[in-house]
Amino acid sequence: MSHPPSPAGPPPSVSPSSVGPGQAPVLRIDARRNLERVKEEAERLFSERGSDVSIAEIAAAAGVGKATVYRSFPTKEDLLEAVALRRHGWFEERLTQALAEPVAWAAFERILLDLATRLERDRTLGEVLRAARGRPALQERKAASLATLQALLDRAIAEGAMRPGTSANDVSLMVSGCSMALTQDGGTAGDWRRLIGYVIDAFRA
Amino acid sequence: MSHPPSPAGPPPSVSPSSVGPGQAPVLRIDARRNLERVKEEAERLFSERGSDVSIAEIAAAAGVGKATVYRSFPTKEDLLEAVALRRHGWFEERLTQALAEPVAWAAFERILLDLATRLERDRTLGEVLRAARGRPALQERKAASLATLQALLDRAIAEGAMRPGTSANDVSLMVSGCSMALTQDGGTAGDWRRLIGYVIDAFRA
DNA sequence: GGGGAAACGGACCGGCCGGTCCGCATCCTA
DNA sequence: TAGGATGCGGACCGGCCGGTCCGTTTCCCC
User: pTM for the full model?
Assistant: First the structure.
């Protein structure tokens, strides 16, 4: 949605008509429809079952052949990154919204609870919070998000509600740790709520 | 070390000589030496790099062929379980020792810090704390350990130092969560120490 | 030391998965 | 509508890994 004209992957050299300075691949309408289906299914399957879903399965779910997937995304990692970036977009929005709240500590609590709710059914989001699989684009945006989060934490510390010295990186580690443990363990919604509560308490002043 | 006569795996039907009611495979001395090497290397490699080390690599490190590994351990999971059980033995010992301490809360703090130190360089131990990969033997012993840990926690709660209602399962989830996050992230010793400190604080009264 | 049991290990199998190729179908434009 | 560009997808490749087989070596006991 964020890149309407250019879908993803390397554009096919130059397009025959309308060759301006900025190249626009101009996909055929069937290609565009297929790409959309692939993105949808990749998002669904990766979120449900994590990054070890095979490309063949995603292609089958989208009703296309593997090659069609690989035409838009040179490697499986690229597809995963595309999905992850969308998830990251959600997180950034949520973070911005939190920054606008008057009481930083309350915003912190709420964003962690929201995160838990999303993480429970979205394994892709969890992978976004982690090392980002060595993809520079993701790492960069993760670093930016952590900086934003740090600003929120600093405000909460200034309020006297949060433990001084709390770092955004530590919060991220704790949350993604709980996420991994519960994902692997098949935790219930109550488990998620409780563990995130512990994390919140750990960072209380 | 805990099973000197019977090494592991299924005993070869019946031994030709000395066929008592309790069967003792009576390994040839080269076989016994190889088995020992395999166990050592499996322990080392699994601990260093986790369960995705291939059997071929372990066999090569031990200076034997793959078939030699599979003769003692019918599947890779069995080998992993053997290593995990040893790790679990360490944990049980440590737990018993903690129960003997006079102040339960102090024992809790110490055991978590010890755990962090071990988890930092031993990925097998982390897998022990988790669902135990569906192996009944491991799950059973894990359940027993959690019961013991719960006894310690209850004492700490009675002391008034620990948050009432704290469950051994939640503690296990938090610790193994941090373990996963830091293992994946390549955290330093300081990171481990700090995160475990957060976990400890989370369970403080 | 010799014969038979026990163990060894390299070759092999089957399955999976990421990624590529190329003959063919589809679509767009003139 | 015709012809060429564009996209499609099933077959294929190479590599990895868990697990098995069987001819050969090693050991043990008489």
Answer: 0.87
Query: Class of A84-202 per CATH?
Result: mainly alpha
Classify residue B132 by its DSSP letter.
Answer: G
Residues with CB under 7 A from strand C: A 17, 28-30, 52, 54-56, 66-67, 70, 74-77; B 12, 15-16, 25-28, 30-31, 34-35, 63-68, 71
Q: pLDDT tens across A81-107, in order? A: 999 999 999 999 999 999 999 999 999
Give which of A190, A45, A48 is closest to A116, Cα–Cα. A190
Question: Which CATH architecture does the domain made up of A27-74 adopt?
Answer: Orthogonal Bundle (1.10)
Min CA distance, A58 vs chain B (Å)?
Answer: 24
Contact A122, A47 (CB under 8 A): yes
Query: Which pLDDT score is estimated for A163?
Result: 97
Nearest CA to B53 among B63, B64, B65, B41? Answer: B41
Q: What is the pLDDT of residues B37-73, one digit of tens each?
A: 999 999 999 999 999 999 999 999 999 999 999 999 9
Residues in chain A: 205
Query: The tokens 């219930």 sit on which residue?
Result: A188
